Amino acid sequence: MEFTAEMIAGFLGGEIVGDKNAAVHTVSSIEEGKKGSLAYLTNLKYEEFLYSTGASIVLCDKSFEPKQEVPATLIKVDNAAECIVKLLQMYAAAKPRRKGVSERASVAETATVEGDSYVGDFAVIEGGAKIGANCQIYPQVYVGPGVTIGEGTTLYPGVKIYEGCHVGKNCILHAGAVIGADGFGFMPNAEGGFDKIPQLGNVIIEDDVEIGANTCIDRAKTDSTIIRRGVKLDNLIQIGHNVQIGENTVSSAQTGIAGTSKVGKNCFLAGQVGIADHVTIGDRVMVGSKSGLDKNVGDGEIRFGYPALPGMQYHRAAAVFKRLPDLDRTVRQLEKEINKLKQEE
Predict the structure, then answer these.
(1) Strand-by-strand arrangement of the 73-77 sheet
(2) Residues of CATH 2.160.10.10 domain(s) within the chain?
């Protein structure tokens, strides 16, 4: 599908500088732009590429003024970053969705797959499972007994959803995600080994959640592990049993949250954050990369480091840490001078 600069500017309420008939059929970065692509300038550190890009159209802010001639047609908008997201969403929505159940899929007689959903090759839908309308179940997905999948949800290849779990509407689970594996529960026994604690709960994932590739969310020991509406989880994240994550919280890759901890609404956890068991994190909390939290954190706080400290305290401590060798030399020199003065008394 092809779009002209005039069509795009009309959709975004933008101003055209250049050829209104310039046409594009794909989207690219400004560095990799080629004829027929729409690029964007949302960060001025990439401005140098604007003057050599091969893209046919470039989206930029109305406030931006080029320093030299631009080969592409410009479309100036109030907020280029927001507008490029709108265009990407429109482009993605225009892609045709697959329909129908593959002959090579295994769908139990007691399972329900509602109209217009797609079930790919070698996918397995167990008894009592319910797949809502307009879902996309890609090849080699496993949907266990009694699982429910809300309408409009996409399960990419290799997703595994264990018995009794629930996934809401318009969710996206990327390849290799595992939902509902046993929580890590063991009790030491008299022989020096460990007895397994049965994990009898499930996982509830509410609407509009996205879960990255190879992320694992364990089922609860009892009751439910709960991922609330709008949560976005990156790849390679581990969520322990009975954890609850609040609405619209975001976590980058390799975060680990131990059992029974609670994370509030609208939080941001950067990469490789670790949260100990039975910790409660308030709403709107921000946690820096590689931080470790073993105590409760109140609403709106910022944490960095291991063990995690309040934001400004961490930065002050980090500044001192860099100076430790110099401070050590100063202290040793002062000790020598003090000892010398004592000897002279």
Answers:
(1) 15-17, 73-77, 57-61, 37-40, 26-27
(2) 100-313
Q: Looking at the annotation, which residues are catalytic?
A: 241
CATH hierarchy code of domain 100-313: 2.160.10.10
User: Token pair of 133, please?
Assistant: 């309308």
Q: What is the pLDDT of residue 91?
A: 78
Residue 129's pLDDT is 98
Where residue 278 falls among pLDDT bands split at 50, 70, 90? Answer: very high
Residue type, 4: T
Res 307 pLDDT > 80: no
Q: What is the pLDDT of residues 114-157, one digit of tens each?
A: 989 999 999 999 999 999 999 999 999 999 999 999 999 999 99
Taking the alpha carbons of 303, 304, 307, 310 in that order, is the dihedral positive or negative?
negative
Rounded distance between C-alpha atoms, residue 316 and residue 320, angstroms: 6
Start-end of CATH 3.40.1390.10 domains in the chain: 3-93
pLDDT by residue (tens digit) across 250-269? Answer: 999 999 999 999 999 999 99
Q: How far is CA 335 from the centre of its chain?
A: 53
User: At 250, is the secondary structure helix, strand, or coil?
Assistant: strand
In DSSP terms, 148 is beta-bridged to 130, 166
Domain 3-93 adopts which CATH fold? 3.40.1390
pTM of this prediction? 0.84
Query: For 147, which DSSP code?
Result: -
End-to-end CA separation in angstroms for the chain: 92
